[in-house]
Amino acid sequence: KFEKVWLIFGVGTLLVFLTVLGVSAFYLGNQPPSCLATIDPEKVETQAPFNEPGLKKVEGKAWDYELVFVAQAFNYNPGDVEIPFGATVKIIATTKDVIHGFEVAGTNINMMLEPGYISEHITTFDKTGEYLILCNEYCGAGHHLMTSKIEVV
Ligand code: CUA
Q1: Which of 23, 68, 80, 94 is deepest in the core (most CB within 10 A)?
Q2: Which residue has the CA at smallest separation from atom 1 of ligand 1?
Q3: Which stretches does DSSP call E strand in the chain?
Q4: Domain assignment of residue 103, given as a range
């Protein structure tokens, strides 16, 4: 008669486990963290701010400039951009096709660009010079050629 107890215990444990799994997947897994804003990847170039990639001065915000990037296999738009030294810049980026990386060599900026999501990072470059932007997610045959450049002047 103890078998019945063990059977109930076993099934009960399984149910608790599945419930926890289901709840966590539903509540925690429905949005990748830090990519809360969404965009239709088919219409990236017609939607602000991605209709005007590049650097733009902004007023009344905690940052001085917004720097908008559109990624696609195998380049970034813009491919080369100048930023004034000391400026606080909000980088806003998305991808038109597949997952790309957005790593700025020599800094802590390292984002993943996912189709349908907008990635953002606020930063101030503490040194003048050239910063290489690299794609660090394998995205196809031209992956290793996919770069852009920030010049802090
Ligand atoms: Cu884009 Cu690798």
Answers
A1: 94
A2: 100
A3: 54-57, 65-72, 75-77, 80-83, 88-95, 100-104, 110-113, 119-124, 129-134, 147-152
A4: 41-152
- CA-143 nearest atom, ligand 1: 2
Claim to verify: residue 88 and residue 117 sit in the same structural domain: yes
Express as a percent the part of the chain with pLDDT over 90.
Answer: 73
The pLDDT confidence band at residue 68, using thresholds 50, 70 and 90, is: very high
How many domains in the chain?
Answer: 2
Tokens describing residue 98: 């597949």
ipTM: 0.99
Per-residue pLDDT tens digits for 10-53: 898 888 888 887 777 766 555 445 546 899 999 999 999 999 99
